[in-house]
Amino acid sequence: MTRLFPLAVSTAVLASAQTSPDHSNGCTAKSFSIPSWLIQDVKHTNAVVSFNVLNRAINYTASLACQTERGGWSACSIQGTPSTNEPLGASVQVDETSATFLLKQSWTCNDRGKELTFNAAGNSSAALNYSSPLLVKGSLYSPVAITPVYADGPTGHDSVGCTARSEKPSWTLSSIHYTDEPGDGVSRTPFQNFNLVVTNPANGYQASCMPAGSFGGTPDLSRLLCVGQEFQSFSVGQYPIATQASFDPVTSTFSLNQTWFCDDTDAAKPLQITATGSTTLPLTCNTSSPTDDDDTTDNLTNKYCTTASPISLTGNLGTVATIRPYALEDPVPSRRGDGCTLTSILNPRWQFSHFEVNGEEVSFEVILMVEDRGFQYPIPIYQGELIKDDAGWYACEIGADGGNGLPLWPKQCRFRYEGGKGEGEEGGELELQARWECRELDEAHPITFRGVTTAKLNTTLACEIVDGQARCATEDRGYTWVADISNVTWGA
To answer: Signal peptide position in this chain (predicted)?
Structure first.
């Protein structure tokens, strides 16, 4: 039987243990997303459990030992000198078959211009004979109380048998369709198309393939675009399955190159597997003649092909490599900058737009000024009821989509406006007191933020009469402005 022997075993854990902690390179972002530890090199000797620990957010390393008593928790002490002085508390509980580790730690990050202290705790268990690094996922207690959500990982990575089935790679090809309409280039444009579904039985992953250029360009059958669950999911993680494929209409040859991942035997040693395959498709074709009246199409024949049943494609195993421990379910770092939570803590600002005064009623649009906004748009805010005993303050009536619970909008607010409301007048001052929520790190436990903003409208107003009432707006209808949020507080 073929065995999957990795080309290279990841040395990330060992290397990390030999380098100095780095509190400047992503310390804050990693502390919010992966407050966690790796426990490694565990030894059980004469009722003493010893192990090394690595904090994955800050690369802190230490060696610990615990004098154990069966059936109860035993405190651990640091042996030698840890890499830095971040306080670490550790306990272990050992029974007949397993050991449970409990870790608590406090550390500080200042890489983002604002010093933040993190407190986290977590626990995890493993069999006494488990020799791989053990991941302990932590929950943060400060500066926010969350348990960060990890990714689901690529399809089927932890399904039982993924690794074993990958030793002899194969795929099932189904829903195969090939179209060839030659055309004459005058009255009829030549057209080719090819579609199929590829299923990998090792992990159950399905990808639909179509020609590159299918969306508005010239279809290219030699370069098929193949996508699966990762096309619609934000929870795949950092390692999506990748599929490259091609079809040669002259020989009816379909070729495939796919990379997938398995960690069903040991999540600390995830495998990246690449395999290739090629086969001649047994196509059955129907033909027809173009229906145009133009004589130039008389010698052309359209061809429509498919297969009678799904096709089995046997593959050739290529490279197999071990990637870093537990990588498949680690969350994806934002490539576009900070999201809701980090923005709200480090640099909270509102972006205002579409300011308007209709008679005496003020309205505007607003959104939290984040780098990673995704597809979210500003929400309209309308002037609600005057708040009693609070001069000039009005309740916000949040636009129709405000009930959708999207995080970059106020969930509740009030505002007041003082200044110009007429033609050619300078814009005034808008004050906003708002409450908003962030949930991208922990959907089940959103963080509620509160803050106050004073925003100066540095532009003039232009007015028109609508139904006998003055309607004034910023002279430049596309005018936007940004204002800091002060006195920010947060909690559950």
So the answer is: 1-17
